[in-house]
Amino acid sequence: MLRAIEETVEYIKRKTENFKPEIGIVLGTGLGGLVKEIQIEHQLMYSNIPNFPISTLEFHSGKLIFGTLSGKKIVAMQGRLHYYEGYTMQQITFPVRVMKGLGIQNLIVSNAAGSLNPEFKRGDLMIIEDHINLQPDNPLRGLIESSLGPRFPDMSEPYKRDIIAKALSIANEVAINCHKGVYVAVSGPNLETKAEYKYLRLIGGDAVGMSTVPEVIVANQAGLPVFAISVLTDEGFPEDLQPFNLDEILAVAAKAEPKMTEILTRLIAEI
Q1: Boundaries of every domain in the chain
Q2: Minimal CA–CA distance to 112: which of 268, 262, 265, 248?
Q3: Domain Nucleoside phosphorylase: where (predicted)?
Q4: What per-residue string of b and e applies to 201-236 under the rule 16 or more CB within 10 Å gives b?
Q5: 61 pLDDT above the threshold of 70
Q6: Class of domain 2-270
Q7: Which residues are bridge partners to 74 per DSSP?
Q8: Long-range contacts of residues 55-63, Cβ cutoff 8 Å, at least 24 apart
Q9: CA–CA gap between residue 103 and residue 82 (Å, rounded)
Q10: pLDDT band at 58, cuts 50/70/90?
């Protein structure tokens, strides 16, 4: 893995003229609109980057974008990777290790998720303050390279409290309804049954999704402060569960995405 990371980092440095990003961003399903705010200097297709996994989803662009946002140099993944696509956890999190190798000092992650909390409605935003990992594998399993971070990384503060406080303050300033809560990660790709939604709520979840946690685990191992935010695109309320419709979910994400972009652009300026 170390050789693969080094090879990929060196390739990217050559192609981007040694661009040195300060912040890494992972953009989730339907949330690529933030890219429009970036003053782009370089773009690389995942398919052209050595060792880089390729997103298999038709609504994920699969580009690594380098540029300036809110006065900060950033690298953004326009299209993330998921366990349900058939990748290993090590492959899913490989881009985070590469971004760390490129020099990022903070990681921002976004996703589309389903609400488990009756007070959190479709189209709302939820800042992740903690998570419950129900995915069947761990990106750190089998890794022994000490240079990547501790074998048993601490997870007492997986999402930085001071960054969360800044984001909530920004949301209040711009009058955007933004909750904070616990994200439950499952493997997918199927949606949950009524009984499963009830269970996930009972164990403390406020939202459920199929991503984010692997990247957050690796970022914490690497010593990177993390901020994560969900756009709640559907509602997993057992008493009134509606059939899944992907087009509707993507439409909700697109409608809510400008609110997320407003918060993130302001937040990046303050990190």
Answers
A1: 2-270
A2: 248
A3: 23-269
A4: beeebbbbbbbbbbbbbbbbbbebbbbbbbbbbbbb
A5: no
A6: alpha beta
A7: 23, 67
A8: 55/79, 55/80, 55/81, 55/85, 56/85, 56/86, 57/29, 57/82, 57/85, 59/29, 59/30, 59/250, 60/29, 61/32
A9: 24
A10: low
CA separation for the pair 111, 119 (Å, rounded): 19
The Cα 52–Cα 210 span in angstroms is 20
Tokens of 204: 């403390």
Q: How would residue 30 be classed by pLDDT, with cut points 50, 70 and 90? A: low
The span from the CA of 172 to the CA of 82, in Å, is 32
Taking the C-alpha atoms of residue 128 and residue 260, their distance in angstroms, rounded to an integer, is 13
d(CA 271, CA 12): 24
HEC secondary structure over 110-164:
EEEEEECCCCCCCCCEEEEEEEEECCCCCCCCCCCCHHHCCCCCCCCCCCCHHHH
Lowest mean pLDDT among 138-147, 185-194, 198-207: 138-147
pLDDT value of residue 155: 98
